[in-house]
Amino acid sequence: MFIYREVEIRKADETAAQNGLSGNALMETAGRSLFLRIKEILNKNSRILILSGRGNNGGDGIVLARYLNQWGYKVDLVFPFGEPKSDSASEHFRYYKSVGYSWSTSIGDGPYDVIIDALLGVGTRLPLNQSYQDLLKWCNQQHALKIAIDIPTGVLADRGEADIAFHADYTFSLHGFKPSTFLLPSNTYFGQAESIDIGLPQDAKWKIWSEKNVKRTMKKRGSNSHKGTFGTGLLVAGTDEMPGSAMLAGLGAMKIGIGKLVIATTPYAASIIATRLPEATYLHDGLNKLAVGTFPDGIRAMAIGPGLTDEKLIDQVLENVWEKEIPLVIDAGALGKREFAPRKAPIIITPHPGEFSRLTGLSVKEIEANRLEISSQFALQKNVIVVLKGANTVIAFPNGTGFINRTGNAALAKGGSGDTLTGMILGLICSESDITSAIANAVYLHGLCADELVKEQNERSIVAGDITNVLGRVMNRLITD
Ligand SMILES: NC(=O)C1=CN([C@@H]2O[C@H](COP(=O)(O)OP(=O)(O)OC[C@H]3O[C@@H](n4cnc5c(N)ncnc54)[C@H](OP(=O)(O)O)[C@@H]3O)[C@@H](O)[C@H]2O)[C@@H](O)CC1
Ligand SMILES: Nc1ncnc2c1ncn2[C@@H]1O[C@H](COP(=O)(O)OP(=O)(O)O)[C@@H](O)[C@H]1O
Ligand SMILES: [K+]
């Protein structure tokens, strides 16, 4: 499942045209594919209103209207802002009329059971003028099933800003998702978002990390494997005041399959954690020791930050480990503003939007409206892997590619769930060979555990410690060969 920005969609259209697939043919395919999907949720007796704009989004509405007419549905095709003006839409409109189907420039007497928004698509520019806003307000007041083509009118394709917008129950996006499907506040207008294949080759820098990807990249362990096979991780976390952060991260790392785990923490925190996590070993006064240059042998990957507050010591530790050729996960207390000097091994940062706001100097609102692009730019500029947390967590790589994760729910909106994720990422980058899929799988599984938990208990009652309780069950379903 791919995600396309406006320029990439225009490029796909251009490439299609160069390969003999005209805009007209593409619109035919789009309209037909939409019809085949939409008829699954329509009732034959429903009164359907299709609102078509003057561009190609409106053209998709025209082709859809033709198929619905042909199959005997009761459909009103309306052009509230005038007849089509794009070439392909105009051509399809001429053909539509030549078949003898009806159309209008004003909405008939309702009530309609279904309203299909084919007003504006990726060509949208905001703000909308008053007549668009009035029409969308009217649509949103109707007790009808609301379906948007490509994107709901009133949102942009690439960014999260929204005007008064069509409040869709379903949005069927052509060729692939548009970024605004995953951004705020636009995200709230899409309803159930689905991608509709229109027969073009898929080629985008961004995609959704799916169950299929997890199954392909996570395999059963070899029968001859031993603890050394899955590596030793160093977790620098936890203080006397926040021992739980180290415990939760430690559970994340161990329950996802790390070979061995060393937790650098305070003696008091260690004494508490050891009762629940006797499998780990401990570096007492770990932060102080690492700051003066002590470093345990045989470490394959390191994570630092959960429950830490002493910025001076953290900076010293980071300076000491910067030259070590092991992947480094930087989270929470270790996520102060820093320069990220070039480093041979990967750096993974795991900010929530508040932390990312401090790192970038941008407001949380700006970040949420453009979380793909901003994390991608940051990854590129600083040569780090960004895991920008929150609903629709973004994983951005320095080469400009990235994933969106769709698992997880509001049960995770609780202290400690980020610590668990940091541990899970440490666990997988230590025990799996491909760091790209290791990070994406950790994020996917973290969210999936929350999705599993809400099947049994209310999201309010779920705590971070519950996540790793179901991790084994969830992985059993996904890792089959
Ligand atoms: N490969 C694919 O995925 C395929 C995609 N396809 C479809 O094409 C769609 C993109 O079509 P598109 O480029 O014609 O743009 P679209 O969104 O219809 O709008 C442009 C029109 O809207 C107008 N307009 C803009 N903002 C406005 C405002 N605020 N207020 C008022 N007017 C405003 C603008 O007017 P202008 O500013 O130019 O005067 C222009 O006339 C895409 O979303 C998908 O549905 C398929 O057909 C086949 C393959
Ligand atoms: N509404 C939500 N939907 C999906 N995931 C969520 C939601 N809220 C929080 N999460 C996830 O929970 C975790 C919270 O991390 P963070 O904010 O760092 O919390 P903590 O304070 O526990 O460290 C992240 O992985 C985030 O993606
Ligand atoms: K639309």
Automatic annotation (TrEMBL):
Comment on bound cofactor: Binds 1 potassium ion per subunit.
Swiss-Prot/TrEMBL cofactor(s): Mg(2+); K(+)
MF term (GO), any: ATP binding
Keyword NAD: yes
Pfam families: Carb_kinase, YjeF_N
Keywords: ATP-binding, Isomerase, Kinase, Lyase, Metal-binding, Multifunctional enzyme, NAD, NADP, Nucleotide-binding, Potassium, Transferase
Taxonomy, superkingdom: Bacteria
Binding site residues for AMP: K389, G390, A391, N392, T393, G418
Binding site for (6S)-NADPHX: 56-60, 121-127, 132, 150, 307, 352, 419
Domain YjeF C-terminal: 210-478
Domain YjeF N-terminal: 9-206
Any one of the GO BP annotations: metabolite repair
Alphabetized InterPro entries for the sequence: Carbohydrate_kinase_pred_CS, CARKD, Nnr, Ribokinase-like, YjeF_N_dom, YjeF_N_dom_sf
Entries under HAMAP family matching the protein: NADHX_dehydratase (MF_01965), NADHX_epimerase (MF_01966)
NCBIfam families (UniProt xref): yjeF_cterm (TIGR00196), yjeF_nterm (TIGR00197)
Subunit structure: Homotetramer.
Entry's family note: Belongs to the NnrE/AIBP family.
Protein task: Catalyzes the epimerization of the S- and R-forms of NAD(P)HX, a damaged form of NAD(P)H that is a result of enzymatic or heat-dependent hydration. This is a prerequisite for the S-specific NAD(P)H-hydrate dehydratase to allow the repair of both epimers of NAD(P)HX. Catalyzes the dehydration of the S-form of NAD(P)HX at the expense of ADP, which is converted to AMP. Together with NAD(P)HX epimerase, which catalyzes the epimerization of the S- and R-forms, the enzyme allows the repair of both epimers of NAD(P)HX, a damaged form of NAD(P)H that is a result of enzymatic or heat-dependent hydration.
Protein name: Bifunctional NAD(P)H-hydrate repair enzyme
Organism: Caldibacillus thermoamylovorans
